[in-house]
């Protein structure tokens, strides 16, 4: 069979084929270029994410390593077996100073002596403004420390409990101290009224959730502000804070009033002061 191709058809073929080929080649080249560009962008993005994540992990590691080094030495509550670092470092934007463990002990309730939690009392004893008079009795030295430098109460439950259970105990103690202070005249009715809103705020800061055995609850009493008209802060770490001189101060002082909320902790703190802890920090 003979194939006959007209001259006009041949001319159309030879004229159009290079253009179509070039257009097809250009399209494929453009697609390849976009693919390569996308791959390069993805590679750069991935590298950036990896770098940022690595830097974040490194920064976190530095903070954790620094905290771990500072808290390497521990003391154990003989009644509960729970451990407390001798130096407490609290990572925070507020840049709290290192806190020295002054005393620790267990909190018991009811005539059965049920153990509720162990508590450690920490204070910023390196504060240059803290000049405890040497002639004060030991118990008054403890009060002087609470009134004049930053402190921390670290609470570790000995059994599973709840934030609200602890909160109710805190609030009963503060209300009893307020009643006694009003009766003795050390707190005026106006000061008591001023403390009501911070007390309500403190009560609402505690969530209705469990607090497991061995978890930590840090309650921080900030150092007295330099400005006389600025109230002290009581910070329930991770939950909130209140600003009122009486509420903040009395929350901590309650642990040393009378026999103390935790008599073993009070005795431990007094023993530390009598042993010269103020001279070694």
UniProtKB/TrEMBL annotation:
Which residue range or ranges hold the Chalcone isomerase domain?
99-126, 147-269
Q: Which Gene3D superfamilies match?
A: 3.50.70.10
Record's SUPFAM superfamilies?
A: Chalcone isomerase (SSF54626)
Q: Name one Pfam family in it.
A: Chalcone_2
| Molecular function GO labels | intramolecular lyase activity
Domain of life, source organism: Eukaryota
PANTHER family membership = FATTY-ACID-BINDING PROTEIN 2
* Listed name of the protein: Chalcone isomerase domain-containing protein
Q: From which organism does this entry originate?
A: Schizopora paradoxa
């Amino acid at each position: 069979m003979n194939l006959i191709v007209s001259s006009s058809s041949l001319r159309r073929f030879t004229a159009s084929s290079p253009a179509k080929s070039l257009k097809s080649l250009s399209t494929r080249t453009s697609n390849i270029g976009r693919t390569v560009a996308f791959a390069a962008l993805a590679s750069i993005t991935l590298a950036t994410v990896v770098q940022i994540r690595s830097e974040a992990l490194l920064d976190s590691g530095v903070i954790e390593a620094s905290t771990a080094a500072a808290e390497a030495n521990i003391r154990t509550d003989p009644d509960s077996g729970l451990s407390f670092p001798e130096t407490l470092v609290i990572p925070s934007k507020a840049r709290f100073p290192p806190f020295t463990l002054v005393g620790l002990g267990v909190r018991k309730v009811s005539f059965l002596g049920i153990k509720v939690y162990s508590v450690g009392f920490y204070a910023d004893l390196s504060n240059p403004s803290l000049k405890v008079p040497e002639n004060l009795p030991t118990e008054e030295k403890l009060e002087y420390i609470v009134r004049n430098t930053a402190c921390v109460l670290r609470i570790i439950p000995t059994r599973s409990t709840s934030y609200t259970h602890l909160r109710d105990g805190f609030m009963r103690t503060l209300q009893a101290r307020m009643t006694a202070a009003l009766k003795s005249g050390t707190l005026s009715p106006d000061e008591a009224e001023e403390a009501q809103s911070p007390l309500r705020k403190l009560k609402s800061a505690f969530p209705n959730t469990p607090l497991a055995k061995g978890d930590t609850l840090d309650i921080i009493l900030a150092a007295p502000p330099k400005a006389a008209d600025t109230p002290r802060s009581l910070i329930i770490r991770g939950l909130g804070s209140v600003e009122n001189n009486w509420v903040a101060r009395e929350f901590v002082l309650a642990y040393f009033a009378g026999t103390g909320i935790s008599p073993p902790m009070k005795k431990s703190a007094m023993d530390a002061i009598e042993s010269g802890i103020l001279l070694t920090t």
